[in-house]
Amino acid sequence: METVASQFAVLEKSPLDKQAKDLHEMALDPQKSIGVFKKLVETYKTQNSENLYIMMDAQMKSEKDFKGVLLDDRNKAWIPKIEKAIGEKSSFIAVGGGHLGGKNGVVNLLRTKGYKIEAIKLN
């Protein structure tokens, strides 16, 4: 649904000095970053996209504008592409877990369009 170039363009919308500051903070306390990552993975494994979204939202609370660009704007742009794909033939659509939950998540956006969305739970 996106090119690699468009994905990099999204990442470049975070100011370089902010990226450097974040990397510096991660380097000062790598165990904190590892702990956060482990919690995200644990939540992902529960297959609860709303909880995963809540965690990601909390992680990005100081970057609401960037979260909008990274998740919300892209989710909204994908909906017409998903509709086109599924309208043409049987389709499998995969997105990152952080794109599923929340009011602007892919699942909710499709539901508001009238689609019935059900999770496939894995054992």
Helix-strand string: HHHHHH
C-alpha end-to-end distance: 28 Å
List the quaternary state of the chains.
single chain
* Radius of gyration from the alpha-carbon trace, in angstroms: 16 Å
Shape: globular
How does the major sheet shape up? none
Domains, number = 1
Number of helices: 6
Low-confidence stretches: none
The computed structural class is mainly alpha
Characterize the structure shown:
This protein has one domain. The model has no long low-confidence stretch (mean pLDDT 92). Helix 2 crosses helix 3. The longest helix has 25 residues. It contains six helices and no strands. The protein is globular, with a radius of gyration of 16 Å. By secondary structure, it is an all-alpha fold.
SSE order and pairing:
Layout: H1 4-11, H2 16-28, H3 30-45, H4 49-59, H5 64-88, H6 106-112
Helix pairs in contact: 2-3
Summarize this, please?
The chain is mostly helical. It contains six helices and no strands.
